[in-house]
Specification:
Blueprint lengths: L6 E18 L5 E21 L3 E6 L12 H12 L9 E8 L9 H16 L6 H11 L3 H6 L2 E6 L3 E4 L7 E7 L6 H13 L43 H9 L2 H7 L1 E2 L2 H7 L3 H10 L4 E4 L6 E5 L2 H13 L5 E7 L5 E3 L4
Parallel strand pairs: 1-8, 3-4
Antiparallel strand pairs: 1-2, 1-12, 2-4, 2-5, 5-6, 7-10, 7-11, 9-10
Helix pairs in contact: 1-2, 1-3, 2-3, 5-8, 6-7
The chain binds cytidine-5'-monophosphate.
The site of cytidine-5'-monophosphate (C5P) has 12 residues, from β2 and α5.
Length: 343
């Protein structure tokens, strides 16, 4: 019998290629339709047996990650222990070590990624033998984006984002530039700002909802700056999947995908963090095929036509002084996976 002493899992950040947000629900969440896309910016999470549950975090933004029971990875450990009641090893404590590269509170689901990685690592460590569908059930109880971090790839999320269907698309790799902001946004605050803007009948960009005759967006951006699509701000209909984005993904044409990016949270994120307008505009001026705020922000995401274009864009954006730092990533990539120990 092999005794497993520690398990390390690599887990990706996510972008939302579409994020359509419905009205607030009675439980405080919002029904979504979103197209998740996992990209090659990874955290590493190691689980080791310990006397009691604890977490150590290092790397990008580590000082802003809660170290106690509020840590999402520790909440995932507790949720898995309840679900995997069988294995005796689950009764012991576990030490979680997180090496962060995904910035904290940046709209990239870094906390959810760490939680997903902790589920995979502890399932392996305890020999829990939970299947992926069972892990997805546990993940949904921990947070809206945790399930997708298990799955990876490109997937449609519904409900709170936890009901997932993988998107059937050719194996195209897309080349993205991420512009990290000098600051953070709280996800609940961005959703609350969107509700306020909608209650006032605004889109969040100072324009009335009707601005934008002849197909113009009325937000001073080209149609490629993916602010708003799908849900009318006043109608508050249930959100719908964007057929144009799905057909762009099926075609594998980056230019089409760039034109179809959209995020209903973008006006709310811009209202709380106006400097992001400059970042988005700069990326488009520098030739990005599309630009949008990632999730609840404040990271801005740009699609490039090729790895070389992404490099040019990353260099120019960092020279333009419109963000704290940049990263080039590719997607889609697989979800949380165990890194085999060195032989
Ligand atoms: O599920 P998670 O803990 O990641 O969500 C963080 C917060 O984001 C929620 O407390 C809620 O305020 C907001 N949210 C929402 N609707 C969703 C997902 C998240 O309002 N579908």
């Amino acid at each position: 019998m092999t005794i497993v002493t520690g398990v390390t899992v690599r887990v990706p950040a996510k972008l939302n290629l579409q994020l359509a947000v419905g009205p607030p629900r009675a439980d405080g969440y919002h029904d979504l339709v979103t197209v998740f896309h996992a990209v090659s910016l990874f955290d590493e999470v190691t689980a080791e047996p310990a006397r009691r549950d604890a977490v150590t975090v290092s790397g990008e933004g580590a000082d802003r990650v809660p170290a106690g029971r509020d840590n999402l990875a520790l909440r995932a450990v507790a949720a898995l222990r309840r679900a995997a009641a069988g294995p005796a090893s689950a009764a012991t404590g576990v030490h979680i070590t997180i090496v962060k590269r995904i910035p904290v509170a940046a709209g990239l689901a870094g906390g959810s990624a760490d939680a997903a990685a902790a589920l995979v690592a502890c399932n392996e460590l305890w020999g829990g033998g939970l299947s992926q569908p069972q892990l997805l059930e546990v993940a949904a109880r921990v947070g809206s984006d945790v399930g997708f971090a298990l799955l990876g790839g490109t997937a449609v999320g519904r409900g709170r984002g936890e009901r997932l269907t993988p998107a059937l698309a050719p194996a195209t790799q897309y080349h993205w530039v991420l512009a990290f902001a000098d600051g953070q946004l709280s996800t609940p605050e961005v959703y609350a700002a969107l509700d306020r803007l909608r209650a006032r009948g605004e889109r969040g960009d100072g324009q009335s909802p009707r601005a934008g005759a002849r197909g113009e967006r009325g937000d001073g951006q080209s149609p490629r700056a993916g602010g708003h699509r799908g849900v009318p701000p006043r109608g508050l209909a249930q959100p719908v999947l964007d057929a144009a984005l799905m057909s762009a993904l099926r075609s594998g044409e980056a230019a089409m995908v760039g034109r179809a990016l959209s995020n209903d949270l973008q006006p709310a994120a811009l209202s709380l963090f106006p400097a992001l307008r400059k970042t988005l505009a700069a990326g488009l001026e520098l030739g990005a095929l599309g630009a949008l705020v990632s999730g609840s922000g404040p990271t801005c995401v740009f699609l490039a036509a090729s790895p070389d274009r992404a490099l040019d864009l990353a260099v120019s954006l960092s020279g333009a002084g419109v963000c704290r730092s940049v990263a080039r990533v590719a997607g889609p990539v697989p979800g949380a996976a165990v890194i085999p120990p060195p032989k």
